[in-house]
Amino acid sequence: MTVAERVEIKGSLAQNSLLALRYNESGCCSENKKLVFRTVFVTYRYFHQYFANLAIHFVASIVIAAMFAFSRLARAARPAVSLPAARCVSYVAPPRVSADKSYRFGLKLDDVKPEDEDEAKALEQLKGVLSLRNASQHELNKAQVATAIETFQRFPGDTGSSEVQIAVLTQKILRSTTHAQGHKKDHHSRRGLIAMVEKRRKLLKYLRRKDLHKFREVVAALGLRFT
């Protein structure tokens, strides 16, 4: 191989190396440009979304504040409406059941006027049969509860109103208290008494929140102390 051929081969190799280097540089430059463009685009999208959300929240807060201000102004400009007068409620303590003058099933036999002597005799016999004089303590307790219901009911047959439930629980509490004083080791009845007192306290609290006037009347009629 001559010297000229060697020089020609070296020149061609150098030229190819230079072309390859230029190609790599151009490729790296294009990749860098793509990466920079992608980074700028993502950053732009992020800040665009961030500022858009910030603007939405700002506008929403302004709208809510304006609505609140308008509602306050409308409430202040609303004419005063007179409240209806409280319904007059006056309760009295339920009377104690008298065994001599009370009868079973809530009958009012003392108001019956016999027309002749035979009816008078039949009425006396009927009173003797239906009188609570010979009734058990269970029947006397039921009669006392019925009297309390009749005293505090809002309408005939009312057994679910707050004042009726309070009156019934008061009668049961009085009876259970008397029993507990005579039977100090009856822990089961004492737990039941505590549960009834707690239930009555909750009902009184509810009635005070709903109708203060009625609450005061019920407490005064039953002789309760509630703080």
UniProtKB/TrEMBL annotation:
Q: Membrane-spanning regions, if any? A: 50-70
The answer to whether the entry has keyword Transmembrane helix is: yes
Q: Which NCBIfam families match?
A: S15_bact
Can you name the source organism?
Answer: Phytophthora infestans (strain T30-4)
- Record GO terms (molecular function): structural constituent of ribosome
Tell me the GO BP annotations in alphabetical order: translation
Does Methyltransferase show up as a keyword for this record? Answer: no
Q: Which keywords belong to this entry?
A: Membrane, Ribonucleoprotein, Ribosomal protein, Transmembrane, Transmembrane helix
Name the Pfam families for this protein.
Ribosomal_S15
Q: Which family does it belong to?
A: Belongs to the universal ribosomal protein uS15 family.
Instruction: Write down what this protein is called.
Output: 30S ribosomal protein S15
One GO cellular component term noted in the UniProt record for this chain: cytoplasm
What domain of life?
Answer: Eukaryota
- Enumerate the SMART domains for this protein: Ribosomal_S15
